[in-house]
Amino acid sequence: MDIRKLTKTVTFATLGVAISASSAFAFTAKSTTALNIRSGPGTGYDVVDALYTGEKVAVKKCTNSGKWCYVDHSGPDGWVAAKYLKKVGKKKPKTTYHSSSSSSEPSVTLGFNFGSGGSTFTFGFSSDGQIIQQPKHKKKKARVCFYKGKNFTGKKACVTPGDRDRLLSANWNDKISSIKVIGNAAVKVCKHKNFNGICRTIDRSVPKLGRKMNNEISSYVAYKY
């Protein structure tokens, strides 16, 4: 099953308005290393071009997890791993914590939330225009959990980045129906042993595997990105 990601959204917490990241989202960034450009948001997609270290690109949109971004540059456009991009241009505004000591009226705050998968960044504007920023939540430890039932039910087994198995044991071979991805993790799963046959790269939770992979997984490689 080809697993596709939804467009990242920005939530206007107070009023409940959702704005697509593709609207007024573009910004300039540079590659911090030599970096592959792929046809889709994941290492399972074909490489269509590459960036050289320090090359500037226009970031058009990012996945909901924030792990992959679509970039525009002088060659073929495509998706790159977001952690190797560094934003260039205007610096972020300094954080200011508002104090209401100068007024007897309480401060009114409108807030925005960014992020998913255990990492959230929140900031807002108080009634006098000051920026109020709250720290990021701690990221959850990267790991991948396999479940025998759909919707993350039944017996489970969890692995961490760096783990791999060329042939699952009899208790798990061809018996995985859903996969939960936690933190900055991903997993490549294959239909046959020794990473052969149909393979899929999964970097977000899948409550029900597709027909080609459900109860058909025999080998895997877990990694962090």
Describe this structure in words.
The protein is an all-beta fold. The chain has three domains: 9-87, SH3 Domains (SH3 type barrels), CATH 2.30.30.40; 94-139, no CATH class; 143-224, Crystallins (Gamma-B Crystallin, domain 1, Sandwich). It has strands spanning 9-12, 17-20, 27-31, 35-38, 47-51, 56-62, 68-72, 78-81, 85-87, 110-114, 121-125, 131-134, 143-149, 153-159, 164-165, 178-182, 185-192, 196-202, 219-224. The chain is elongated and about 55 Å long.
Please give a handful of descriptors for the protein shown:
elongated, Gamma-B Crystallin, domain 1, mainly beta, 3 domains, disordered N terminus
CATH architecture level-2 label of the largest domain: Sandwich
What is the overall pLDDT average?
76
Beta-strand percent range: 35-45%
DSSP E strands, number: 19
Overall spatial form: elongated
Q: How is this fold's topology laid out?
A:
Elements (H helix, E strand, L loop, with lengths): L8 E4 L4 E4 L6 E5 L3 E4 L8 E5 L4 E7 L5 E5 L5 E4 L3 E3 L22 E5 L6 E5 L5 E4 L8 E7 L3 E7 L4 E2 L12 E5 L2 E8 L3 E7 L16 E6 L1
Antiparallel strand pairs: 1-2, 1-10, 3-6, 3-9, 4-5, 6-7, 7-8, 10-11, 11-12, 13-14, 13-16, 15-19, 17-18, 17-19
Write a brief caption for the model:
With 225 residues, the protein is mainly beta. The chain has strands at residues 9-12, 17-20, 27-31, 35-38, 47-51, 56-62, 68-72, 78-81, 85-87, 110-114, 121-125, 131-134, 143-149, 153-159, 164-165, 178-182, 185-192, 196-202, 219-224. It has three domains: 9-87, SH3 type barrels (Roll), CATH 2.30.30.40; 94-139, no CATH class; 143-224, Sandwich (Gamma-B Crystallin, domain 1).
